[in-house]
Amino acid sequence: MKKYYLLIFIVFIAIMYNTVNRNRIIAGYCSKEGKNLSELYSEQQLIDKAILYFLSEKQSYSAIYFGGEKDRQEFIVKPYLNIKEFKSINSDCCTIELNDTKNISAREKVYGYVEIKYLRRYVDNSELEERKTYIRFNSCGDMADGTRGFTIGVL
Fold it and tell me: Which end of the chain has less neighbouring CB within 10 Å, N or C?
């Protein structure tokens, strides 16, 4: 009988540990650094990290194709060279949104996201295309496991 109570106690402790840990993540606590996210990064620093991630990861494609086989058109995307160029063209690009407690997944540990509005440019200087993407981050300011951001097309 004592083994049964010990097992129940161990399960109870494990559940309580997970609950406390999830609540700390929701509050923005980074256990790796022992600090809250707001102590680690300012909003502008998080935005800059998201832009750098976007420039390195989300601009990896170079061509976009439209049309069928006979009338197929190729548009070559002109990537931004650096964060300075990106910010000069997209000056009011970014906002930070923190997840509310209903949307935080303890498994994903996604604390919030940066919404980036930008102009997609093409090498042939054709019309600029307004785009929007979301870059997710965890309570340590890093990209959360399993998230690569997602893009919404023309605004």
Answer: N
